[in-house]
Design goal:
Blueprint (H helix, E strand, L loop, with lengths): L12 H10 L1 E5 L4 E3 L7 E15 L5 E7 L6 H9 L6 E14 H10 L1 H27 L2 H16 L3 E3 L2 H7 L4 H13 L3 E4 L2 E4 L4
Antiparallel strand pairs: 1-5, 2-5, 3-4, 3-5, 6-8, 7-8
């Protein structure tokens, strides 16, 4: 595996050496499914660059966005499924072309006992994902849909580093667990308010946003 420097200030040199020895560098294109419902997970992905979005499906087949994963982040649910040999209850889709290091499940528990920095990384990852889930629950329970839409667009802006958001109205509706008609109406209102510009499958966030 080629030299990865993302973790030089995070992990012990010996752990970095093992990550290069046992980890597998993989590249996925936009739209690729990295983890899927009902599939056994044999590795834990650590994002090197790009963005993954993690979704959960209800009994009727509707999906809702749980959280995003970007550089140096990992999916705690993948870690849990690896250790317990459980099928995945979430789906991870590539939002923006992504490079990941796939850590084999056999090393996860070993490193937890062997390397303090790995233990800190895993515990911090669980805490960050838990806080993001709380934010999602709070957003659904207490915030109006227009507020959730604005927060959604700001998060995509933060992750991409761009004011131009590439997303169709259907995609946004799926992520927010609502209808395309409602999303289109709210986006049109934001455009009328001078906060965004709407293009085909793209949204430009203006300075007033």
């Amino acid at each position: 595996m080629e030299k990865i420097t993302n973790f030089d200030s995070t992990f012990e040199p010996a752990l970095i050496q093992e990550i290069h020895q046992y980890g597998e560098l993989k590249h996925f294109k936009e739209g690729d499914v990295v983890m899927d419902y009902g599939k056994y997970i044999r590795m834990m992905p650590i994002v090197i660059k790009g963005t993954l979005k993690v979704l959960r499906k209800d009994d009727t087949g509707n999906e809702i966005l749980l959280y995003y994963l970007s550089s140096n982040e990992s999916c705690s649910m993948a870690y849990s499924c690896c250790l317990e040999a459980k099928k995945s209850e979430v789906k991870a889709i590539v939002e923006e072309d992504v490079d990941i290091i796939a850590i084999p499940h056999a090393k996860l528990d070993e490193w937890l006992c062997k390397y303090p920095s790995w233990k800190n990384y895993i515990m911090r990852s669980f805490n960050e994902r838990f806080l993001e889930l709380l934010k999602s629950i709070e957003s659904i329970a207490f915030h109006k849909l227009d507020e959730r839409l604005i927060a959604y667009l700001k998060e995509k802006q933060r992750l991409s580093g761009s004011n131009l958001i590439k997303a169709s109205h259907y995609l946004i509706a799926d992520d927010l667990a609502t209808s395309r008609v409602v999303v289109s109406r709210l986006l049109k209102q934001l455009e009328n308010d001078g906060k965004i510009l709407l293009y085909r499958n793209e949204i430009k966030l203006l300075q007033e946003f």
